[in-house]
Specification:
Layout: H1 6-26, E1 36-43, E2 49-56, H2 60-72, H3 74-84, E3 92-97, H4 100-138
Helix pairs in contact: 1-3
């Protein structure tokens, strides 16, 4: 099975859906933040391993606690995954913290700051041009 085959894509989507449901309602660990989402899932072509990228809304401590809670509940999650999805092998899940959303927000903020500086510089230039034009008229 190729890495990007149709079968593998379907398995990735199904595992992502089941993981999201389990994290949202199946795990009662208080360390797991309520605003936790499964961003992406990549199951290996041999169905032995799985990488799950997790995004947590909150500070760094909430992210670390959620990751620790998910890692401790990995056996339960794998068991529920095996019951829900009928696969030849149930993959070993590795949870990875996804920083892409935070990175995107930070980049957007930096872009907005640069745009504001450019607009402010443009307004100063246009105000300076008007001031020099008035001085030219007076002379």
């Amino acid at each position: 099975m190729r890495k990007n085959s149709v079968k593998n894509t379907r398995i990735n989507g199904e595992v992502q859906r089941v993981l999201a449901e389990l994290i949202r309602g199946g795990i009662k660990d208080p360390r797991i933040a309520p605003m936790t989402s499964v961003v992406s899932v990549e199951v290996a072509p041999d169905l032995k391993t799985c990488k799950a990228w997790i995004s947590v809304l909150g500070d760094e401590k909430a992210q670390e606690d959620t990751l620790a809670g998910l890692r401790s509940a990995e056996g339960y999650i794998r068991n529920q995954l095996a019951r829900t999805i009928n696969l030849r092998n149930t993959p070993q899940i590795t949870f990875i913290m996804d920083q892409s959303i935070a990175y995107g927000v930070n980049m957007s903020k930096l872009i907005d700051e640069v745009v504001e500086k450019d607009e402010a510089a443009g307004q100063k230039e246009s105000a300076g041009e008007v001031g020099t034009a008035k001085n030219d008229e007076n002379n």
